[in-house]
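Async update (no meeting this week)

Hi team, since we skipped the sync, here's where things stand on the single-chain job. The sequence we agreed to prioritize is pasted below, unchanged from the tracker. I ran it this morning and attached the output directly underneath so nobody has to dig for it. Comments welcome in thread, and please keep replies under the output.
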Amino acid sequence: MADSALFIGWGEIVRGRETEAASTFTETIAYWARLQEEGVIEAFEPVFLEPHGGDLQGFFFLRGDAEKLAALRVDEEFTQVVMRAGLIADRVGVVGAAIGERLQRQFENWSEAIAVHA
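Output:
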């Protein structure tokens, strides 16, 4: 079961690049699906946000094993996908996240640290 995730967010699409953004989004979905079939990631979820006045317009949430996701972040094809997205959308970013059992362990460690410093 997945213990880690990657949050890959983006802001506004660069004006004039909407068509390229649509095709890049479709290609990226196919890339995530291939990574899921190959067992590199366990699952992924694309999300478009409603207009809310903030910078974040949408994100992909990739779930998987911490070690596999760490290796993915430095994979050449992954890096190219993120770079390409950065050319058509503002504020593209990749952030690692703890979920599942890893989240529980981190919370326990955090709680212990609080007790030591209280």
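Quick observations from my side:
The radius of gyration is 16 Å.
The longest strand covers residues 4-10.
Reply here if anything looks off.
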